Amino acid sequence: MPDVSKSPLAPRRFPRIPGVAGVRLAVAAAGIKYKRRNDLLLAALPQGTTAAGVFTRSGTASAPVIWCRDNITSGRARALLVNSGNANAFTGDRGMHDVRWSATRVAKALACRPAGVLVASTGVIGEPLPVHRIDTVFPRLIGELGNASWYQAARAITTTDTFPKGAYRRCQIGNTEITVAGIAKGSGMIAPNMATMLAFVFTDARIPAAVLRSVHSATVDRSFNCITVDSDTSTSDTSILVATGQARNAEPESISDRALKNFKQALLEVYVDLATQVVKDGEGASKFITIDVEGATSNTAARKVGLAIAESPLVKTAIAGEDANWGRIVMAVGKSQAQVDQQLLSVSMGGVLIAHRGQRVAGYTESIVDQHLTGSEIEITVNLGLGAGRARVWTCDLTHEYIRINAEYRT
Amino acid sequence: MPDVSKSPLAPRRFPRIPGVAGVRLAVAAAGIKYKRRNDLLLAALPQGTTAAGVFTRSGTASAPVIWCRDNITSGRARALLVNSGNANAFTGDRGMHDVRWSATRVAKALACRPAGVLVASTGVIGEPLPVHRIDTVFPRLIGELGNASWYQAARAITTTDTFPKGAYRRCQIGNTEITVAGIAKGSGMIAPNMATMLAFVFTDARIPAAVLRSVHSATVDRSFNCITVDSDTSTSDTSILVATGQARNAEPESISDRALKNFKQALLEVYVDLATQVVKDGEGASKFITIDVEGATSNTAARKVGLAIAESPLVKTAIAGEDANWGRIVMAVGKSQAQVDQQLLSVSMGGVLIAHRGQRVAGYTESIVDQHLTGSEIEITVNLGLGAGRARVWTCDLTHEYIRINAEYRT
């Protein structure tokens, strides 16, 4: 992990996340890449746990992603093994062999099938996974099951992250108290669909696999698929949601079951919390940017415009420089390829209307917006004036520190 | 123009470009934004000049782009007026009015129709064009026609450029000697389709408008549409090719006329020369990167992969840091959304095969590639192993200087 101090946008502290019934965590230091820190996480899950996953759309997906995509179709999981420091990506047949070996190792210890062991890896691409190191610490990892905290788990999966990321919410399904708790990592190579971003969310709710899959996809779409740090899509992006069923709530029948309303909201809050923490740890980030797009022809078009703004290096550097260069926002809207009529386009920053229906508003004074830009939370609102489509997208600014981190990451 | 020293990748000197029969140039300092430098260029063209243009695909195209797109359909031009410092983009009705006013002013002086006057503007977006300043220097501009050099013309159209860009070639159509000469500007907001990039190329050849249009599009596709600096698409990108016909060669009938072979090659050389100069002046560039993609299912797919690599901030920062982080190249290939089979993928840098058919080659030693990366001209070759499609794409690295320039551009 490069020697970088904590992001100025980091939350003040890691939340006090309660346990999730049925989930037992363990961490270990295998020395895969990093020295003197935990880099392995194992989560054991009880029988009957349902699981859903969303993975990178990269054409060069990592071996663990290929493994998980194949195995999560069962909708079941008994364990989750995660390592940091090595992505096991672009490692050919050996990479697939190493995943199978790891899953089998966990399966034996937990008396389940290898297919029930989900695996995720994050770190350098193209280097073989040093499985012998994992092998050495494996007995200890198994022996420690149940002893690790969420904080330790969140730390073990980090790479260039400057702080561990966790979130939780309590909610109800019917009259049953439910806990939703999650951890995530990610700070660079962050873009939707998805990012070098791993997110693992655990709930004790009882949710059938098909329902869990729908809820998870819809939630990821409004959280991790609405963030970008640098527009680069990783080989390893993984979001996994597991439900242990230990809360014994009445089983919902579909995603539209009214009993799920409170749960879906809690889940979305956990995902948005984790996703925005990833952005707040965006490599070199000094400002957190929320972009609201309204008046698009559809929600999809709105997100397209939002992401075009969020991914523009020129918008992001202007904000880093606290420069109210709103012309670059117009440029980014233009390049989005979404339907746009510049005569109807309005742009605001920090709640101040700068341009309305195709031109700068009369009497616009930059000083108020400049004031807003000196803060660390920046708001951009774009109204396309075409329809009812809307989306909210989050990103961070592009600073010298991003360059420093990424020009020095591997060496 | 921010106080930045000349790009380390700049050519040693501006070429000694000969005159093009029929083209008369003038420059003037209107003080649109910059002080004490020329910011207006006028090129007068003789009757019978044919013209072709390619413009930004931005949904928020500038007023001059809208004007040119409408008027170039005639295939004729009598003048070209260019200003730097203000893009006249997102300026509403007033912007269109200002273009019409400028064109009419030139048309009166040259006794032609306003529709024959092509206009281009580059600079800040969203601020009204200060036409009164142009008005003041206008008589002088007309009076100076024929007195400006290519060097002066190339300098007058620059914004954040650290050096003026020009190129020329001589060739033959039949037995007639032909000159092709061009100037360009651009250094940021550079991406294909196109970039804040203006290119104006002039030839004395006699080419019917329809043929000129085809030749121009094909040439832009293999030059300006194969470069990227920061993936941002400008509101103002313009490439215009004019042919004065003064060389009186036999008129070619189609783009496939054999007499054009030599001319097409010369034209492509001029465009690639200008396009790569734009990349070499990429904001903050310290390394010039040539990416060859082979084995794609089509040339279009190859270009898509090449641009995904060229636009990846993680690839560009790694190269800035002289780090042979080829895993990021694999990541970028994966995110391109072109057809990819990672089992067939090979990656080389500086001619050294690093990964072959889906994994790192046995015995690969990074030190040779590291050596290559210390140079200023970097070569990346990717073979997808799928077909005969190929493309060459150019970009530059992403450095601290990019951030510095763009966080401070406007203020």
What can you see in these coordinates?
The structure is a homodimer of 411-residue chains. Chain A is an alpha+beta fold and 411 residues long. Chain A has 2 domains: 257 residues, L-amino peptidase D-ALA esterase/amidase (4-Layer Sandwich), CATH 3.60.70; 120 residues, Ubiquitin-like (UB roll) (Roll). The first copy, chain A, contains 11 helices and 16 strands. In chain A, the strands form 3 sheets. The first copy, chain A, has a 7-stranded mixed sheet. In chain A, helix 1 crosses helix 2, helix 2 packs parallel to helix 3 and helix 7 crosses helix 9. The radius of gyration of chain A is 22 Å and the shape is globular. Chains A and B meet through helix 2, helix 8, helix 9, strand 14 and helix 11 of A and helix 2, helix 8, helix 9, strand 13 and helix 11 of B.
CATH homologous superfamily (4th level) name of the largest domain in chain A? L-amino peptidase D-ALA esterase/amidase
As a percent range, the share of helical residues of chain A equals: 25-40%
Shape of chain A from CA axes?
globular
Instruction: Report the largest inter-chain contact.
Output: A-B, 72 and 72 residues
Count of extended strands of chain A: 16
Using brief descriptors, characterize the structure shown.
homodimer, seven-stranded mixed sheet, 411 residues, 16 strands, Ubiquitin-like (UB roll), five-stranded mixed sheet, alpha+beta, globular, L-amino peptidase D-ALA esterase/amidase, 2 domains
